[in-house]
Each structure stands twice: as structure tokens, then as C-alpha cells.
Write a structure and sequence with these properties.
Radius of gyration: 16 Å
Distance between the termini: 21 Å
Order of helices and strands: EHEHHEEH
Low-confidence stretches: none
Structural class: alpha+beta
Largest sheet: 2 strands, antiparallel
Strand order of the largest sheet: 1-3
Number of strands: 4
Helix content: 40-55%
């Protein structure tokens, strides 16, 4: 989980996104798979927009704020992949190269 003080603050959202990119690249370089699981966070906004009761916010708030005084911005699952990706190699090159570019440009 990536936590921020205010998940609706754009500067914090961008910073959290950058951290997620670095984390995802680092995990990939270590041979691990990662997938964002943001549906509960997105449902908070969707329910609010539609005027529906919110069953996600209290649970996430209790976990994040109750322990850490922050909002959850990104959730993810991390695991060892069962098999190698079937995707074609990227034109960007290996994840280590992308990581080197990303770390030096931040």
C-alpha cells in the first residue's frame, strides 16, 4: 500500500504514482509480479459521485488512518509469477535500463 495524507491532493497523487512506478520497476527487476488493486479506492469516489452509500471508505479509513494517519492511494498485490510473461519484449529494453533512466530523471 502507498499512503498519502490526502488522496485527493493532485501533488500527492502524482508523487504516489512516481513511487509506484519505481516500486513496480524494482519488483520486476527482482523477478516479481505486481498488479495495482485500486477498485475499492475507485469505488469510494464512484459511490460519492452517484450518491450511493459507501461501504469501502470506512474499512479503508479504519485501516489507514487508524494506524498511520494517512489515506490509501495505491494498493497492490505482489507475488512470484507462475510463468514468464507471454508479452513481446518491449522497445524500451529490460527493466533494469528503464529503472536506471527513471531513477536518474527523478
Amino acid at each position: 500500500m502507498l499512503l498519502v495524507r490526502d488522496r485527493l491532493d493532485m501533488a500527492q497523487a502524482i508523487a504516489a504514482g512516481r513511487v509506484w512506478q519505481r516500486l513496480h520497476l524494482a519488483l520486476t527487476a527482482q523477478g516479481l509480479a505486481a498488479q495495482p488493486l485500486n477498485q475499492p479506492i475507485e469505488m469510494i469516489d464512484r459511490n460519492q459521485m452517484l450518491g450511493r452509500s459507501d461501504e469501502f471508505s470506512p474499512a479503508l479509513a479504519a485501516f489507514a488512518r487508524g494506524r498511520l494517519g494517512a489515506d490509501i492511494r495505491v494498493q497492490a498485490r505482489i507475488c512470484e509469477p507462475r510463468r514468464r510473461s507471454l508479452a513481446a519484449p518491449t522497445s524500451r529494453g529490460p527493466s533494469e535500463t528503464a529503472m536506471a533512466r527513471h531513477w536518474t530523471s527523478a
